Amino acid sequence: MSNLSANIAKLPIYKKICLLILVIYFAIALLAPVIMPYSIQDFSHPHLAPPSGTHWLGTDELGHDIFSLLINGFRLTIFMALIAGFLSTTLGTVLAFISVYFGGAIDDILHFTANLFLMVPELVVIMFFAVFAKPNLLNTILAIVFFSWVRVYKIMRAKLMDCMKKNRVMYTLSLKGNFLDVAQALALDVLPIWGSFFVLQCNRAVMYETTLAFFGIGAPLAKTWGKLIRAAIDYTDLYYDNVYLWYLLPPVLAVLGFVISLALLVSREV
Amino acid sequence: MEQNFVLKTIVKYVIYLLVVVFISFALPRLIPGNPLFFLAGDYATDVPSALLKQFTAYYAPDLSLAEQFTLYLKNLAKLDLGYSFYYKTPVIDRIAGAFKWTMLLSIPSLLISTTLAIWIGVRMGLEKQARGATFLVPLLAVQAVPTFLIAALAQVFLGYKLHVFPASGAYTPGITAQSSGYAIDILTHLLLPLIVLVVSEIPSTAIFAYNSTLRIKKEQYVSFAQYLGISQDDVKQKFIIKNIMPEILGKLSIQTITCVTGSLFVEAVFSYPGLGTLLKQATSYRDYPLMQGILLVSCLYGICVNFAFELMLKMYTRTN
């Protein structure tokens, strides 16, 4: 634990700020049910009320409390990002390991597929998949995971190839260590990159989900930040009476704060 | 040797092409809840019979999969990508009409952003370590933001609030190529989407150029040139830029693809009549043939671009 705090103390100032922001985001996500003043199902409020003591960010055209929706969005979006980030990073790493361990034709096929994925516009493919599938959050996550493991795979494969030459690994191999033994021997080497990739993939998942939501794809009832942005943009009188200030900007700022903090946290100092 | 390489590359890309065509054929038939199920079920009664006829003629759900695939290939050879549900015209006509607007937006954006990004990246790389790295933070921040969000913010503030630029469309409605001021009208509508696209494209290339410059800067021939008192400008031109070019070219092939993807989202926000707006309409009306067409065209574009760059890179490294 003291090791961790020493590491945090060594970070440059902007990374400390990012870390603080992320801690706040996670706290809000965890405490969402306590923070939310109203249920998100509750649309009994006056329509399109401007911000006031009872509705901090006003209400939308159906009478939902926007502040409650925003806080609920923390929970949904962060939850979605963590799952999608974890799964795509793990999938990329496991495939990279399979590639390196078995080599030969298996490696060729995986590498060929990865190269093909890199050539086609990722987000268009995800969109296509998400439109055809049943609109729920799980399918959105699967679409994101299935098409975004490639970057992880490419770099992990290169890294693992180097690691395979290490004595520790050669030794395991010479003892006829099986797939899992070798994986264990390599785990420590790839853990730091795995961590960075996890953060980056979370960032990417939020980018993708928000973009999908903007295109009106995905679970209609899962009010992620992307859905809130989309709802605000769809509202025709957004620019009269500064409605955009409390309708559009809060979810936009929530997304910006999150993706920028994630990206800066794992950026390499050169 | 040379011919061997070209031949190998061609074979590789032909395989890529075949795989993409196959996936484009298979995806709509594999994903659960796909339109073929929709139209075979109760939903079919809601669809006008003429449209249903077009649909069954193209997808032919009654034939065996092998026959469906040969039919798909035959149609593809005739450039027949099916019939749009929403527009009630052939998909290929729609895509061809939208493609020119996407190119009008993405090609200038690519040229401008790459030039600016190389300039920024190389300058940052030549600065002293700490100062160069400071500029990295805003670049990384912009890179993390989804392109459509930058576009939406620009539209809100520059378009609707400050009225600096027209906020949507590619031309004032009603204006034609014969009207006076047509070119200027097109240009003013192009400006805001173009700026957004350039801003969103700069970071990745700039960071790339920065890292390459840092590496080349440490090479002995650069230190030696500086030691010999060769001017900073010459070192930059003759040693650094020339040596990072092959890497940048490699990066450019990815950039050429992302500039079109980015352009799709920027267009969708600004209702710019390119492929992006078409895609947005296709998704919101669940116009499957149109979506499938856009997917296929954008994938083919990606493969062609990669093919061109792979050959180009080979030529460049051989002549230098």
CATH architecture of chain A: Orthogonal Bundle
Most residues in contact, chain pair and counts = A-B, 42 and 57 residues
Helix content of chain B: over 70%
What kind of sheet is the major sheet of chain A?
none
At the first level of CATH, what is the class of chain A?
Mainly Alpha
What is the CATH topology assignment of chain A?
MetI-like fold
Over all CA atoms, what is the radius of gyration of chain A?
A: 22 Å
Number of strands of chain B: 0
* Secondary-structure arrangement, i.e. CATH architecture of one domain in chain B: Orthogonal Bundle
Shape of chain B: globular
Order of helices and strands of chain A: HHHHHHHHHHHH
Morphology call of chain A? elongated
Question: How many domains of chain A?
Answer: 1
Q: Supply Rg of chain B.
A: 24 Å
By DSSP, the count of extended strands of chain A is 0
Number of helices of chain A: 12
CATH superfamily of one domain in chain B: MetI-like
Fraction of residues in β-strands of chain A: under 5%
Listing every helix as H and every strand as E from the N terminus to the C terminus, the arrangement of chain B reads HHHHHHHHHHHH
Q: Note the gap between the termini of chain A.
A: 27 Å
Q: Average the pLDDT over all residues of chain A and give the rounded result.
A: 85
Overview of the molecule:
The complex is a heterodimer of chains A (270) and B (320). In chain A, 73% of the residues lie in helices and 0% in strands. Chain A has a single domain, classed as MetI-like (MetI-like fold, Orthogonal Bundle). Chain A is mainly alpha-helical and 270 residues long. With 320 residues, chain B is an all-alpha fold. Helix content of chain B is 78%, strand content 0%. Chain B is globular and about 80 Å long. The mean pLDDT of chain B is 82.
